[in-house]
Amino acid sequence: MWFLVRYQISRCPNCQRILRIELDPTDGLRIGKEGQRCKCGQMLSTGRYEWEHLSAQEHRQYFHPVRTAIVLLSVPLLMSFTFARLTESQAIFNLNGLSTGLWFVLICYAISWAGKGLSIWLSLRRTGKLRT
């Protein structure tokens, strides 16, 4: 089975050293170090932002991306259709499939928010805004 993996290699324009390799680069907001210094001494932008440099609207957008919501909200409907067809019932929807799909979405959101929370915590710790 073949998998398609998107990646992006960032190089220093001065010395051509590889600075980082990002798997699955996205166009959305990414939390992290805003700059990275190469071994040759040049400071380069990473395309990421520290949490404190984002507006309140960007904070909401970070936690509720529209594309992710559309995909995850369609999962329960697809699972209910699939369960209805597998059980050969006359109903269009199957409540077992719908509830299974909703649990799947909740688990995916919980894992996603835990990762985002960790990124925010690290950003606040890096900028000194987090008291430990």
Q: How does the helix and strand content classify structurally?
A: alpha+beta
Write down the overall mean pLDDT: 79
* Structural domains: how many: 2
Across the major sheet, the strand order is: 1-2
Residue ranges: pLDDT <50 for 5 or more in a row? none
Helix content: 40-55%
Number of helices: 3
Describe the structure in your own words:
The protein is an alpha+beta fold and 132 residues long. It folds into 2 domains: 1-49, no CATH class; 55-132, no CATH class. The chain has 3 helices and 4 strands. Strands 1-2 form a two-stranded antiparallel sheet. Helix 2 runs antiparallel to helix 3. The longest helix has 33 residues, at 95-127. The mean pLDDT is 79.
In a nutshell, what does this entry contain?
It contains three helices and four strands. With 132 residues, the chain is an alpha+beta fold.
Key structural traits:
single chain, alpha+beta, 132 residues, 3 helices, two-stranded antiparallel sheet, 4 strands
